[in-house]
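Quick one:
INPUT:
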């Protein structure tokens, strides 16, 4: 080896081990203080040598703050009708290739009753954004589900403050509304007719009204940078979100982003682990989108900071029709099958299915 190559090689080793040392020091700081600067988060998102240590640190913090119990939330996808046109989503209004459905209030209550009989303590009602269910319909559904003794999470998009209040008065406990991205320009590009301000207004209203709030982001959106992902993470901390759900963006062929690259499992997992380090007592799901990209995705996520899984309890053909992105798992399975499957997987990694409601316990 000539001297020059040798020198640059040595320099490379020193440089790389230097950045590894920096990364390990930052992970140590995050594990102990639960606080990082944007630059530190960016360094960890870019560094590939320290990932195992990042995941292990997130796993330790998860164990210390929220324990080994995994909270299951039964997900009811009650309508795929949507008036919005989010560029990434298969349920967007302009997608004519989806057969649209909506379940009657009685069907929704029936699915929740079945979820309760499978041992779920929480149901999540999710749908596209639409006005087909009036406030009174929603209140009727919420009251009936609450009478089953379940915790209830809503995920039905942007509404007025008075609608959020009405749902809360009827008994809803939690609300999921992902910010999707905190890059305002990118947000408005991907969400025609929607405003970043209104998204923030919704989250603020929900919090003020006493909901546990869940938010989150997509990882790997076109034009999204690691700096912007770092902003997302800091935003969740600033908001003091109770739940943070995130997953890779998976291109859907029926959308304007059909030919984009999509996010990776690894980067999504890193973002998730960092969220656990910075919000140690939050509830963090191992998401379905993660399992779409890796067949062990949810269990890997549970071992890298997550403590929640949201199995599908929608019955029949509706699962297939709730086609946010391609390759969604469990579309041909029954609620009973998924319940058994997920319990087996969770106990298989030495964790237990919680029998509690799984509210956030602030520490
Ligand atoms: N890939 C991954 N996640 C998606 N979502 C919508 N479309 C996609 C996609 N193509 C997510 C959004 C939304 C949640 C219900 O589904 O983040 O908040
Ligand atoms: Fe509608 Fe939600 Fe899909 Fe946007 S992400 S198009 S609001 S279902
Ligand atoms: Fe649905 Fe495993 S959770 S098949």
């Amino acid at each position: 080896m000539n001297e020059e190559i040798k020198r640059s090689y040595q320099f490379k080793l020193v440089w790389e081990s230097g950045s590894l040392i920096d990364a390990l020091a930052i992970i140590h700081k995050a594990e102990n203080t639960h606080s990082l600067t944007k630059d530190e988060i960016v360094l960890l998102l870019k560094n590939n040598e320290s990932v195992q240590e990042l995941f292990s640190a997130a796993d330790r913090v998860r164990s210390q703050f929220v324990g080994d119990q995994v909270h299951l939330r039964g997900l009811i996808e009650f309508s795929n009708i949507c008036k919005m046109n989010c560029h990434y989503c298969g349920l967007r209004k302009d997608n004519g290739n989806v057969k649209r459905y909506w379940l009657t209030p009685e069907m929704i209550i029936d699915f929740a009753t079945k979820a309760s009989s499978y041992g779920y303590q929480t149901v999540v009602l999710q749908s596209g954004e639409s006005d087909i269910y009036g406030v009174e319909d929603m209140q009727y559904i919420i009251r009936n589900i609450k009478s089953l003794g379940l915790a209830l999470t809503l995920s039905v998009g942007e509404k007025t403050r008075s609608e959020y209040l009405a749902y809360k008065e009827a008994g809803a406990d939690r609300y999921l509304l992902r910010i999707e991205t905190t890059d305002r320009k990118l947000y408005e590009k991907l969400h025609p007719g929607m405003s970043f301000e209104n998204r923030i207004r919704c989250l603020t209203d929900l919090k003020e009204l006493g909901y546990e709030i869940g938010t989150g982001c997509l990882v790997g959106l076109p034009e999204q940078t690691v700096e912007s992902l770092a902003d997302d993470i800091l935003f969740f901390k600033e908001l003091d979100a109770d739940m943070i759900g995130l997953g890779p963006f998976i291109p859907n062929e029926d959308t304007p982003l059909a030919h984009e690259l999509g996010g990776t499992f690894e980067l999504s997992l890193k973002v998730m682990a960092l969220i656990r380090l910075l919000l140690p007592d939050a509830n963090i799901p191992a998401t379905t989108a993660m399992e779409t990209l890796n067949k062990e995705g949810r269990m890997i996520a549970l071992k890298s900071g997550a403590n929640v899984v949201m199995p599908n309890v929608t019955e029949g053909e509706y699962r297939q029709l709730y086609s946010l992105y391609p390759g969604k798992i469990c579309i041909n399975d029954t609620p009973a099958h998924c319940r058994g499957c997920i319990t087996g997987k969770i106990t298989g990694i030495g964790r237990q299915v919680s029998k509690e409601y799984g509210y956030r316990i602030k520490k």
